[in-house]
Amino acid sequence: MADRSTQAHKAPVYLKALTLRDVTDIAGVKEDIKKHMIVILRVTPLAQKDVEELRKAIEELYSYAQSIGGDIARLGEERIVLTPPDVKIWRGAYDLK
Amino acid sequence: MADRSTQAHKAPVYLKALTLRDVTDIAGVKEDIKKHMIVILRVTPLAQKDVEELRKAIEELYSYAQSIGGDIARLGEERIVLTPPDVKIWRGAYDLK
Is B81–A37 a contact, with Cβ atoms under 8 angstroms apart? Predict the structure, then answer.
């Protein structure tokens, strides 16, 4: 646990691709970010089911990412990316799609 | 440079979303991975232009990722993910889309 404070990890960072099918999936996503995983979340299945639920889910994940010092960004129409505190989403001058 | 050997970084890891429009874009992608960035690459623009060039580009990036001990995976129809050596793509028992 000592490495948490230095933002340095000898163990590799994991990147996980998941699908958001239901609001109940949010808890698992938060757990993964807490475990220092990067999550690429396909949100279209929930969008097709209930746009309002998707809006709330993204809001909740956005707040969560902010609260832990992580990052969140849209990735095209289908996905969002969420990162733990030691991974930043690069926002350059070009090519953000 | 000393941190390279321990796979530990005090600086944050960056995640960058880019678009592959031409084979000449490959050099930049390799540079980013060399700089320990995670690259999410949208490949559809090149796919629409020349499928054979895309096939070669992905083969080249695949070889490159392997050669540096990084990782590479498809992300749906439109994107691929490439990681530096200290970031692994999680391949679990479920939900790889």
Answer: no
In terms of phi and psi (left: phi > 0; alpha: psi -120 to 50; beta: otherwise), the region of A18 is beta
* Beta-bridge partners for A88: B14
Here the ipTM equals: 0.81
pLDDT digits 0-9 by tens, A45-80: 999 999 999 999 999 999 999 999 999 999 999 999
B22-44 mean pLDDT? 96
CA B12/CA B22 separation, integer angstroms: 29
The H or E element spanning position A79 is strand A79-83
Task: Return the structure tokens found at B43.
Answer: 């490949």
Interface test with A, best of B43, B46, B95 (most A CBs within 10 A): B95
Q: pTM value?
A: 0.84
Chain B residues in contact with A13 by the CB 8 A cut-off are 13, 86-88
Question: Is B13 close to A8, i.e. CB distance below 8 A?
Answer: no
